[in-house]
Design a protein that fits this description.
Helix content is 43%, strand content 14%. With 254 residues, the protein is an alpha/beta fold. The protein has one domain: TIM Barrel, CATH 3.20.20. It binds 1,3-dihydroxyacetonephosphate. 1,3-dihydroxyacetonephosphate binds next to strand 8.
């Protein structure tokens, strides 16, 4: 799968429409790859209208755990479930603004309960990486985030390894490092929700993925796809990424 996390972009409904149309065109006929776009909340409904008749799926970039109530500015998982199939929780850009492991767990629990396919992001920062603590940090994040998850959720559960030092820096993780960490994500999850569920959930990589390096991730045995930020805003580049991912999957399946 390929997930296009648009973050706080684009800045107009017109640009969002243009981008989603181009991505839908590129995804047409590429049945091997699930492509999901994650626009800002304000563009969700407009994008949804444009998705009719396309193979693209829709997701939100965050959610709140309470279904409704006095929570100014928040959008609940239950509300999103009527509009989209996917949600991202625990992105490092939100954790950097103060989101805690406990909040990520509550968001993931609510999203899974609302039947949303839920991407939980984890990843170490540069300092933790340099100190040789990446595995410990990431395993702890996965353990905390899955506090409310169960084996029944595995089909809707996606763990994204997004090392903070690789996000938006052009310094993508080497495939060998990414492979080891994605294995750790799956093993840690298996220890919590069970071996079978651990095999079933999806594990993806994110952090400076682009058209030039995507193949090196999607061909890894532990990797079920990529979470793409900056490159997903460039219609031509992201289209090329869809094509090369489909190519890798077609070769692997033949
Ligand atoms: P970039 O692809 O821009 O590095 O962002 C990755 C990311 O944060 C996706 O969620």
């Amino acid at each position: 799968m390929l997930a296009a996390n648009w973050k706080m972009n684009p800045t107009s409904a017109g640009e969002a429409a243009e981008l989603v149309k181009a991505i839908a065109d590129a995804a047409r006929g590429q049945q091997q790859v699930t492509v999901a776009v994650f626009p800002p909340f304000v563009w969700l409904l407009g994008v949804l209208e444009l998705l009719e008749g396309t193979s693209l799926q829709l997701g939100a970039q965050d959610c709140y755990w309470e279904p409704s109530g006095p929570f100014t500015g928040e959008v609940s998982a239950a509300m999103l479930a009527g509009i989209c199939q996917w949600v991202i929780v625990g992105h490092s850009e939100r954790r950097a603004m103060g989101e805690t492991d406990e909040q990520v767990a509550r968001k993931a629990g609510a999203a899974l309960a609302a039947q949303l396919t839920t991407i939980i992001c984890v990843g170490e920062n540069q300092e933790q990486m340099d100190a040789g603590r990446a595995s410990e940090v990431v395993a702890a994040q996965v353990t905390a985030a899955l506090a409310q998850a169960s084996a029944d959720d595995s089909g809707r559960l996606v763990l994204a390894y997004e090392p903070i030092w690789a996000i938006g820096t052009g310094k993508n993780a080497g495939p060998e490092h990414a492979y080891g960490m994605m294995r750790l994500l799956r093993e840690t999850a298996s220890g919590i929700i069970g071996e079978r569920a651990g095999l079933h959930l999806r594990v993806i990589y994110g952090g400076s993925v682009n058209a030039a390096n995507i193949e090196s991730y999607v061909e890894l045995p532990q990797c079920d796809g990529c979470l793409v930020g900056g490159a997903s805003l460039k219609a031509e580049e992201f289209s090329a990424m869809i094509r090369s991912t489909a190519g890798v999957y077609a070769t692997a399946g033949s």
